[in-house]
Every structure is written in C-alpha cells, then in structure tokens.
Amino acid sequence: MPAHEPSGAVKTTEAAPAKINLALHVTGQRADGYHLLETLVTFTEAGDVIHIQDAAEDGFSMSGPFSDILTRDDAGHNLVLKARDLLRQACGMECLPVAIHLEKNLPVSSGIGGGSADAAATLRGLCRHWELALAPAKLAEIALKLGADVPMCLASQPLMARGIGEDIEMIDNMPVLNLVLVNPLKAVSTPEIFRRLANKNNPPLGQRGDEPWMAFIGKSRNDLEPPARAVLTEIGEASTLLSEAGAELVRMSGSGATCFGLFDTMENAQSAAARLRQQRPGWYVQATKTIDGLPR
C-alpha cells in the first residue's frame, strides 16, 4: 500500500465478542507444560469494540467501564499493540500509522476472551483498514503467537478447538443461545487454576452426532470449574443465583470467574439479569445472545 497523508476520515470499527466456553475438557499435558484441551466455544453479541483511525503517528487510547483497570494493568493494552506490530511486520509493506481506541466493556481476566478477543479484533480490523490480503493460515499463525485463545477469537463463530486451542473446527449449525453472564469482579489466576487441577487426563468431549445441542452441552463439563470454585467462593455463589433465576443450564466459562446461565427466551434472560443486578449490584451482569453458526 503506498504511503499517503492521513486524512482522519478513514475509520474502521471491529467488534471483539465475548468468548464463552460452553464446555472445556482438559485431556492431557504436553512436555512443554501446555495443557491439551477440547472446548466447545461460542461468542456473544456483548463484547469490547476496537476503533481504528488514520493518524499522523501510532497511538492508543481506552474508554469504557473497565478501562481504568487496564490503565493500572496494561496487559490487554499490550496485546492490542502486539497484534498491531506483528501484523505490520508480517504484511511486508508500508502500513499507515493508526490510532487505536479500545472500548473496554467486558471485565478483565474473567474467562470470556478479554485481551485475546481484543487482539483478534485488532488483527481483523487492521486487515480491513490497511486492505491486507493475508492468507488465513498466516493470520492464524500471527494469532497463535499472541496467545492460545486468540485463534478462536479470530474466528468469533461457534467452533470446537483442540490441542492448545490452535486446532479449530468450525460449527455451522449452532443455534442462537440466550444467556446471562455473571462475574463477581474478582480475578482468578489461570496458571493457579491449572496447577490446582487434580486430573489432567480427563475424558474428551466426543462427538455430538444427532443429539440435540442442549443435551450434548448438558452432558459436558468445565474441568477447570472445581479448582476455580475452591479458589474463589463467589463462583459457586454466582452459579446458585443463576440457577435460582431460572437458568436451564449453568456453567463457568474458561478459567473463571465468569459464569453463564442459558435461558429459553431473551425475555427470561433479561428478567433474570434485572433480578441478579438487584441481588448483587456490585457485580457484572449482562443478558445477551450468542452469534449463531448457521450459514449466511
């Protein structure tokens, strides 16, 4: 792309949907310490937003309800900038300076994507903004360098991930799910949760076949939930509150501490969210729905 003077008129907006682990089975551990997983993942309409604009020089800024946390702990900030820098190195051409603004709507270190989703959205957004035509395999390679969850978040559609998260199988018939996300706004350490995992060679998720999705999800589990509950008692409390609010299925996402409840209708999800906000006004509570996997 030839260099030109920044006009300020070229703007790109990219959603960074929250990642939900509907199921997460830990099936082994590699010699290098990385854990092997089988995880059923979907994404929600709730999430962060990346805004990109031409600028005289590179810049970064943040806003949103959880931006102050990243101001104190710039891990998410660094992932966004690492994504920008790795993409610029890989494209092999001169790319214009950009001002990137992160609208931080999701809790930090909460098991629903966070910095990984922001990094993936940065890659997608900059590819559009800079009009790059990188091969999907090359983009996935960049994503994996940023973190094991980033390739999943790069897809941001229902999928099954295996290995350390890099072996991805897209799912094209996942229905829309209505859910409520609940987080006590207390972070848990992912390395500590894995260290506390008693069994690291658990049964795999297996194949769904013709089984209804809710039945298949109901038979699965999150192997990280028991150790996470032991570390943070509010995870169990959040699960109980979701069940009492009428959720058909309740589970923790990722390594926590966000829990989700599935509801039969969005109206019921919204009613449950309103009830939970009254019960725990200091917590993050969000009614949302998933991005479907149906062919478009």
Write a brief structural summary:
With 296 residues, the protein is of the alpha+beta class.
Written overview of the protein:
This protein folds into 2 domains: 11-170, Ribosomal Protein S5, domain 2 (2-Layer Sandwich); 178-289, 2-Layer Sandwich (Alpha-Beta Plaits). Helices cover 34% and strands 27% of the residues. Strands 1, 2, 3, 4, 5 and 6 form a 6-stranded mixed beta sheet that branches. Strands 8-9-7-10 form a 4-stranded antiparallel beta sheet, covered by helices on one side. A hairpin with a 6-residue loop joins strand 8 and strand 9. It has helices at 67-72, 75-91, 115-129, 136-146, 150-155, 190-196, 213-219, 225-231, 233-244, 266-279, and strands spanning 11-29, 35-54, 59-63, 98-103, 159-163, 167-170, 178-183, 249-252, 259-263, 284-289. The chain has 296 residues and is an alpha+beta fold. Residues 221-279 form the GHMP kinase C-terminal domain. Residues 78-155 form the GHMP kinase N-terminal domain. It catalyses: 4-CDP-2-C-methyl-D-erythritol + ATP = 4-CDP-2-C-methyl-D-erythritol 2-phosphate + ADP + H(+). Keywords: ATP-binding, Isoprene biosynthesis, Kinase, Nucleotide-binding, Transferase. Pathway: Isoprenoid biosynthesis; isopentenyl diphosphate biosynthesis via DXP pathway; isopentenyl diphosphate from 1-deoxy-D-xylulose 5-phosphate: step 3/6.
